[in-house]
Amino acid sequence: MRRAPTTDPLRPVQAQREPSRVAAALTATGVLVGVVWVLELVDVLGFGGRLDLFGIQPRDPATLGHIFTAPFMHAGFPHLLANTVPLAVLSFMSAARNLWRYLAATLVIVTVGGALVWLFGRGNSVHLGASELIFGYLGYLLGVGWWERTPVAIGVAVAAFLLYGGLIWGVFPSSPYVSWEGHLFGFLAGLFAALLLHGRRPGRPTARL
Hints:
Number of strands: 0
Mean pLDDT: 89
Largest sheet: none
CATH class: Mainly Alpha
CATH superfamily: Rhomboid-like
CATH architecture: Up-down Bundle
Protein name: Rhomboid family intramembrane serine protease
Radius of gyration: 20 Å
Structural class: mainly alpha
Order of helices and strands: HHHHHH
Subcellular location: Membrane
EC number: 3.4.21.105
Number of domains: 1
Keywords: Hydrolase, Membrane, Protease, Transmembrane, Transmembrane helix
């Protein structure tokens, strides 16, 4: 009696999983970039830039809820254009490994980073722009590499640093028209998200007798 050839059931599953993961990351990134562009088009063409008031005004109780809108608003198209490419690249790199952790990290960056800007940002100023997310994703990717310390996580962290590590200088005060607070607190919130979501390194398998 001839036995049917055996196949490894894990291989086709893994082969299908990788393209779907990339597709999900591309979709999430496309939605994010699309949202910020649509909002800016609506703001400029429909409201004459008045939606910029949905940025964060530190310690103003009326704008506390703006921590959830500020990262998606921009002060004109030059501001948006400068943020689009790094936002897309770092968003995709963050989402490619695990979409749900990416969404959770985005929520942490927006909430924690925005709250810190509201608490400690300069007074008499409006803070807005996707740079909070950009620095947040950069901090998240570097943090994941540090806390997971797996070859993939370290490789992604190194790639992110080589591409955009120079942005870290943006966490220091420079131009009065640049929200270095958004950069700094976004980066710290990204590190916190990595600690929260990836703080435990994968344990080594143990053999039982």
